Amino acid sequence: MSSVPSSGGDALPERTEPVPDRTPALGKRRDGAGVGREGAGVGPGGGSMGLEGGGVGLEGGGVAPESAGVGPESAGVGLGGGGVGLGGAGVAPEGAGVGREGAGVAPESAGVGPEGAEPLTAGGDRVPAAVGAARARRQLIATIKDSLRGLSSQLSQLNHQVSARVDLKDVDLHCLDLLARHGPLSPTALARRAGLHPATVTGILDRLQRGGWVVRDRDPDASDRRAVTVRPMRERGAELYRLYSGMNASLDEICAGYTEPELELLAGFLRRTTDAGQAAAAGLATG
Q1: How many angstroms separate the CA atoms of 248 and 254, rounded?
Q2: Is residue 232, in this structure, part of any structural domain at all?
Q3: pLDDT for the residue 177
Q4: 11-13 and 42-43 as β-strands: parallel, antiparallel, unpaired?
Q5: For residue 65, how many C-alpha atoms fall within 13 Å in the half-sphere facing its CB?
Q6: Is there a domain that residue 190 lies in?
Q7: How confident is the model at residue 18 (pLDDT cuts 50, 70, 90)?
């Protein structure tokens, strides 16, 4: 046995203990629970993580695909589990803590695996399926309401541009549209539909008649011989139709992408929404 002199001149015995081999990766291999494909701690895809996942196994979230107790169909872990794994949100094969195609969301579902696992909160707790469904429904309804507000705003802008082209006030164009859809109407009926005072409607009708947009006729069915009805001049309708042709063409193109049952559903929804708007306006007017 050879020796190495110490600083004091005495010989120190050579170490005889075997040096541990530190080259293999720590932990278990691909089939181990909670360990990446090439070993936990050091994987070829990055430090402190497995092959491509962030701190998790090759394809499962926190658990390798073949680990005991969590098979590929298990909820929450494994290859097809909800919340983590290839098909779930949270951890996917190519992101650390991120779904396959989105941040924290898997390609097909948010926080829910293909087998119907419940979604996760930001803190990692399970959200009951009923709560998640109710939340998604509320968000969808809010989106619809916001879209209706946006539609109303855009149509108001369109109508303003049209009325400016034909030298009409916005309210004049609105009354003209009511006459075109529901006329002929008496001035009183028009005022009621427009939500305007009858004296205001008289001034509007005077402007429309001077512009050749409407005509007043005696009402033969009225007991009062002074009663009149108002009807739009169809000859001027083509002028307005031309100005709305761009929007009408866009609507035709949009509707072409829906089936007849879908269009019937949309038509029914819009009818009910219009009725609700009329009822709300009437309630405010009488309140």
Answers
A1: 10
A2: yes
A3: 95
A4: unpaired
A5: 14
A6: yes
A7: low
User: Which residue range forms the structural domain that includes residue 49?
Assistant: 38-64+72-118
Residue 213 forms part of a structural domain: yes
Are residue 100 and residue 178 in the same domain, yes or no?
A: no
The residue-averaged pLDDT of 69-77 equals 41
Is position 262 within any domain?
no
Tokens of 150: 């946006």
Are 252 and 183 members of one domain? yes
Q: What is the DSSP letter of 100?
A: S
- What's the total number of domains in the chain? 2
Q: Other C-beta atoms within 10 Å of 181: how many?
A: 10
For residue range 166-201, what is the model confidence (pLDDT) as tens digits?
999 999 999 999 999 999 999 999 999 999 999 999
C-alpha distances (whole Å) from 40 to each of 26, 47, 84, 180 are: 6, 9, 17, 75
Element (H, E) at 230: strand 228-232
Q: Half-sphere exposure of residue 266, counting CA atoms within 13 Å on the CB side?
A: 12
Q: Could you tell me which residues come within 8 angstroms of residue 122 by beta carbon, excluding any fewer than 6 positions away?
A: none
Residues 114 and 172 in one domain: no
Do residues 100 and 54 lie in contact, with contact meaning Cβ atoms separated by under 8 Å? no
- pLDDT tier, 17 (very low <50, low <70, confident <90, very high otherwise): low
The pTM score is: 0.54
Q: Which residues contact 110 (CB under 8 A, 6 or more apart)?
A: 89, 104, 119
- The whole-angstrom separation of Cα 39 and Cα 45 is 11
| Residue that finishes a domain, picked among 81, 98, 118 | 118
User: How far apart, in whole angstroms, are the C-alpha atoms of residue 87 and residue 112?
Assistant: 8
In the block, tokens 């609507």 appear at 251
Q: Provide the mean pLDDT of the chain.
A: 72
Here the CATH number for the domain that contains residue 173 is 1.10.10.10
